[in-house]
User: What shape does this take?
Amino acid sequence: MAAVDACRWVTKSVPYAPYVTSLPWISHYGCKYVVHGDDITSDSSGEDCYRFVKAAGRFKVVKRTPSISTTDLVGRMLLCTRTHFIRSLSKVLEGREGSGTEAERKAVGEDMTARLHLYASDETGLKPGADVWFWSASKAARENDTEEEEGTFSVLCHGTRPKPGQRVVYVDGGFDLFSSGHIEFLRQVIEAEESLALADGWYSEEAVQERTGKGKDYRPVFVVAGVHDDEVINVWKGVNYPIMNIYERGLCVLQCKYVDAVIFGAPFTPTRAYLSSLPWGLPDAVYHGPTSFMPLTYDPYAAVKTMGIYKEIGSHDFSNVNAEQIVQRILQSRAVYEERQRAKGIKGIGEEAQQRRERMEEEQRVKEGKDQ
Assistant: This one.
């Protein structure tokens, strides 16, 4: 529910929806159509879950988004593969990096670029929404605090700019397996800024009238999210983290309604030089939340604290929901399932699981061979 509520293109979320969609259900919520991907969805009896709305002419089909699936993610967790990593997202988008022929790489890059533009649209899906930028600098500047580099910013697409009176705030992270932990942190950043704005009279009748007299009202904060690249995250977290590559993670951040701009390839340490050179100017605040499973050897926010713009979001109900915890849930669930099946006396479960793992490993080896 947290993920659905935070989606930029969702107006209302409804919990406990039935698996088989009925006409009374959608009519109750004032929905004219049901929209679904072009993949087949069946109930336990093998019948179409949308047969009732289809019969009534109230069903629309859209092409399923070509991207990673749950199966892909679980496979990465179980096999600890790193072939999903992207060395340079800008080169991939330009067709200069990746597997396949030059023409195939170019086609993939164009498709990925088009999808970034779609995800950067506003709540209508028709107009520009979020700003999308890339930051490039030396490896040292991206991974640690030993280099003070402004780096180079390049824009992919322009969205809305900060409006009069809005404070610009910066957040950064890996945002791996984008979850309720990330979403709640971003929501609380907005909430913290709204509290400051309330004290400054942002919501007074006069202030509201002044803003709405020039158009649609808006919130008092413009949130810029920096997303670290795959190499940077792997340096600090090891194993095969991040489970999702920078492109996949960036799309997750882009679709979140609490974010106004995204910077791909943001440094692990937001230095004074980096922050001062942001396209929107030096931010009014830099927010950070609980980090529970990263073995840091220094404080990445030391410079920000010295500048007096550091803000911290404390623990919340989803503080412990992060990529590592999600991976552990998957691994533990598999172990419990296999043990339960063995306890029931199902002889082949161990062999079946082993064969399944061997097939996945072979598929991964083939894929790695193509990528080389």
Observations:
- DSSP finds 15 helices and nine strands in the chain.
